[in-house]
Design a protein that fits this description.
It is built from 9 helices and 16 strands. It is of the alpha+beta class.
């Protein structure tokens, strides 16, 4: 069994926990840590997802520089489930290690701060060797993955940058971040929409022809007078809120983000926009639009329908 002398330059605290399949091994490792005079907070035994989440939460809240370095130790039947749930917290790098070599790689490459072990497939003596290796290995150390040689300068630079970049992954997401994942949003990104001269407040950009698709925007308060087309069209609301009155079918559709609506060819419909609204629309054939009322008539009809503006 390998001897252990921890290399951390700060006092070390370990948050430990396990499920019923890993509790015996966890208890063995906690005893070993205490024999090394390492502070341990043992959270006991619970379901693998509950206990791992609590360990992950506490390690995550301690990732900012402090007088004491906080790491985690979790155990379940395989060591995989606890690692998955611990890793749901920012700044937590849980690694399942079944051998000392894997622990060496996890610390050298990933700067692992939570060790996950398997209560079903790892013996107590092997687990102690894994724990000792994990405790004693500094980040960027020579390891099996580097053929036990120092990392080349370019790899070492990559590893250094990873420490800054990894904590930002998945945090601080904004709406613009989310829109970058949307294929429709990407089609219109940075494209200028052209005003729709016949309807105040509207603008549109054709994305492709045959079948034709476009992004359409309307300012809050805009109204489309009753009209019809020689084609049917599908639309999906990407932003905002609107109502569509299908006067031919005497039906009203209140639409928000993600809602879909198909309007058949020839159906007369009127539209009211409550917020700045953007939607994707698709139709077959050449664009046309035939009005069945004027704008003032449409506004009066919408106001009456909504009861002086109430949605």
């Amino acid at each position: 069994m390998a001897e252990s002398t921890t290399t951390t330059t700060r006092p070390l605290k370990i948050i430990a926990g396990a499920d019923s399949f890993g509790c015996t091994l966890k208890d063995t490792l906690v005893s070993h840590l205490l024999s090394l005079n390492i502070e341990v907070e043992d959270l006991g035994t619970s379901s693998y997802y509950t206990i791992a989440a609590e360990v992950g939460r506490q390690v995550s809240s301690s990732t900012t520089p402090a007088a004491t370095e906080t790491r985690g130790l979790v155990a379940c039947g395989t060591g995989v489930g606890v690692a998955i749930f611990a890793n749901k917290f920012p700044g937590v790098y849980a690694a399942t290690c079944l051998t000392p070599e894997e622990a060496l790689n996890a610390r050298s490459i990933n700067n692992s701060n939570v060790l996950a072990v398997s209560g079903m497939s790892t013996s107590p003596s092997t687990a102690i060797d894994i724990l000792n290796t994990w405790l004693n290995t500094p980040f960027k150390s020579p390891c099996p993955a580097s053929n036990s040689q120092p990392w080349p300068q370019d790899i070492e630079s990559f590893l250094d940058n990873s420490i800054k970049e990894m904590p930002t992954i998945g945090s601080g997401s904004s709406q613009s971040d989310e829109s970058a994942k949307c294929a429709i949003c990407c089609l219109v990104k940075n494209r200028e929409l052209n005003p729709i001269d016949i309807i105040p407040g509207g603008s549109m950009k054709i994305l492709r022809e045959t079948p034709t698709s476009a992004i359409v925007r309307f300012k809050a308060g805009s109204v489309e007078p009753a009209h019809h087309h020689t084609f049917g069209h599908d639309l999906v609301v990407m932003e905002g809120k609107k109502s569509v009155w299908n006067l031919s079918k005497k039906e009203r559709y209140d639409l928000g983000v993600g809602d879909f609506l198909f309007t058949p060819a020839g159906d007369v419909h009127r539209v009211k926009y409550y917020e700045d609204t953007e939607f994707f629309i698709r139709w077959d054939g050449k664009w046309d639009m035939f009005f069945d009322e004027d704008l003032e008539t449409a506004k009066a009809a919408v106001e009456k329908e909504l009861g002086n503006g109430a949605v």
